[in-house]
Amino acid sequence: MLIQKFHPGLQPGQQLAVAGSGTPLFSRQSHWDCCGALHCVAMALALLGRLDDPVDIRRSDAGPEASFWDRAWPHYLHGLTLTELASFVWELNLGVRPVAARAGQTTVLRFCEQELSRGAPVIVGWRSLHPVQRRASLAIGVEGLRRQRAFSPHALLILDPAGMEPGLAACNARLEFGRDRRIAYVTATAKHRVAVDGAVSIRLLKAGS
Questions:
Q1: Burial letters for 82-114: b for 16+ Cβ neighbours within 10 Å, e otherwise?
Q2: What is the C-alpha separation between 159 and 155, in angstroms, rounded?
Q3: Which member of 15, 37, 176, 181 lies 3.0 to 4.6 Å from 136 by CB, making a disulfide possible if both were Cys?
Q4: 120: Cβ contacts below 8 Å, ≥ 6 apart
Q5: How far apart are CA 52 and CA 40, in angstroms?
Q6: Residue 10 forms beta bridges with which residues?
Q7: What is the pLDDT of residue 63?
Q8: CA end-to-end span of the chain
């Protein structure tokens, strides 16, 4: 049986939104900067209830959105590595903490499945091979096969800030993990081989931690 599991903070529909508030979720690269990883953080924080508006974030002059933008704009041109991204999330002081996955594509896939099952969105770093171009996307779901009680994931359902806004769907791309250890980035119009560099989840801090 083929199953797709999505983050509970999503509200699919004609326009993808945050569950409960109905606020548009998809923050597309070029809306307010050219760093895809930061767009992923903004969407993740919105899913966790830490940001109210992940789309027009630079227009806010107060509250967590303004604080986010103050820290984000210096990275406008050069972006962030996954390590720098984890530090950036910590320094926001918004009641969340980053958790990094170990290297290895199988580990990343399982890591994303486990983190999503606990309600933590995950930012995945990956790169195209020809030409080499590093990207970041937000994993908001996982697809796999269920045989009796065992679930075997084989694809991450992602929001790619550099892609088109999803219409009547919860994701705009997917990362498919093949048995031959190859990974494919797939959209409605294209499919090409990529490599995964790692992943960072964003968890809510527990009271007292």
A1: beebbebbeebebebbbeebeeebeebbebbbe
A2: 13
A3: 37
A4: 48, 99, 201, 202, 203, 204
A5: 14
A6: 18
A7: 87
A8: 39
Is the separation of the CB atoms in 16 and 170 below 8 Å? yes
How high is the pLDDT of residue 167?
82
pLDDT at residue number 129: 85
Stated as kind and residue range, the H or E segment containing 174 is strand 173-177
Q: Where are the domains of the chain?
A: 2-204
Give dist(CA 204, CA 191) in Å, integer: 34
Spans of the chain below 50 pLDDT: none
Q: How confident is the model over 28-79, as pLDDT tens digits? A: 886 555 688 999 999 999 999 999 999 888 777 788 999 999 998 888 777 8
| pLDDT given for residue 76 in this prediction | 76
Q: What residue ranges in 118-164 does DSSP mark as E strands?
A: 122-129, 132-147, 150-159
Nearest C-alpha neighbor of 54 from the set 14, 102, 21:
21
Which tokens hold the place of 57? Answer: 């974030």
d(CA 96, CA 153): 26
5's enclosing H/E stretch is: strand 2-6
- The DSSP secondary-structure symbol of 137 reads E
Distances (CA, A) of 90 to 71, 72, 178: 11, 13, 34
Domain 2-204 sits in CATH at 3.90.70
